[in-house]
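Try it yourself: sequence plus 4-fluoro-L-phenylalanine, in.
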Amino acid sequence: MSDVTNRDQFGSRIGFILASAGSAVGLGNIWRFPFVAGENGGAAFVFIYLLLVFCIGMPVMLAEFVVGRRGQGDPVGSLRRVAGKAFMPLGAMGIIASIIILSFYAVVGGWTIKYTLDAVIGSLGTDVASAGAMFGAFVKNPFAVIGYQALFMLGTYMVVARGIGNGIEKFCTIFMPVLFLLLIVLAVRSVTLPGAAEGLAFYLKPDFSKVNGSMVLAALGQAFFSLSIGIGVMLTYGSYLNKAEPIVSPAFQICFLDSFVAFIAGLVIFPAVFAFGFEPGAGPGLTFVTLPAVFSKMPGGSIFAIAFFFLLVIASLTSSMSLLEVISAYFVDERRWSRKKATLVVASFTFLLGVPSAISLGGGLNLFGKSFLDAMDFIASNVIMPLGGMGFALLAGWLLHTMAREEFSDAHGVPSIIYPAWRVICCVVAPIAIGWIFISGLKW
Ligand code: PFF
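Structure, out:
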């Protein structure tokens, strides 16, 4: 068993909240949420999404915090300590999912670095055709894509290798406020453009005819991915939180910050896209093809382009750090490796595993009809994360509820409804909802 007395810790509650929100806020909010919402009925999707975040996501996050704080270790070790050996596979599944996600996440993270540099030197495309051609040429160039992927992984490694307090917490405490500020500035710019109203209507006008099983699964997958739950990331961060700190209010604040950023990202993107007459349903290409063209038409656009892509770099780095942390924590806590060795080996291995994803968009490397990158995303986000979330909910609700009740109590008093509501959700509501949505909506 590992030595749990000298574990690194977050230095403050706000550091913990910003680091966890940093994990949650990422490409999922700024790149994925707006186009998934745009494709799935706008406000109807946003509404269902928020419902799932607070009614299912937050209870699962709390379940992870309970296991992490009590288990004082990585997902595998924590589960063994609090629930017994039989539950170790749930932790192992989370670590495998983290490896899969980090492998492709670093690829897209690399794109954000490339786009920030292009924005700085003023060489982003000026219309959809030229931006599309540039994106196409970029993803077809393996040296460029892999080079930026390596740079992104190096940045992630350099922070995580420094530890929790000196690395992750310090970085997030400085850069998360920068991210919030940039996002607000961009949203104000976007919604005050002439012609923005049409974009707001597209984004926010509910179309309930789009509500069906696969749309709700899309919302659930998005919620789990966006909150970084179901695979032990929040468990691991929770294990570094001082026992004297509360967990219920931070969980709420993290869910709130995450939803707020996703929602505002839509307010940045759609009004601007409509104001300049671009196509809103551009899917994943929205960020990397449509937006450069939008910025080139906007007064002061080059500055806003730099701000936007820099914001994406920060958002994705703080998320990839949490993934590298969970995987490395396993080797540190369970295998007794040093942090330096664990982070270096894991970052290098995951980088290599990401190479097929990196070249899959340009070279047609497919897995059963999906690009390798999309296939990895699908397996991790739509399969492992919901199943892992169900596992954590069932475990905490049925077996660890006494522990949870103790962990929930804090000096300022948690409303008395929270614990019973949490328990009903974990024992019954979340497993049934996740199971039902999973079965009815799972389509490759
Ligand atoms: N939550 C991150 C995002 O929205 O981009 C991605 C992510 C990070 C997913 C960490 C899962 C995870 F464990």
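One thing you can check immediately is this: Residues 23-24, 26-29, 98, 101, 225-226, 228, 231, 233, 319, 322-323 surround 4-fluoro-L-phenylalanine (CB under 6 Å).
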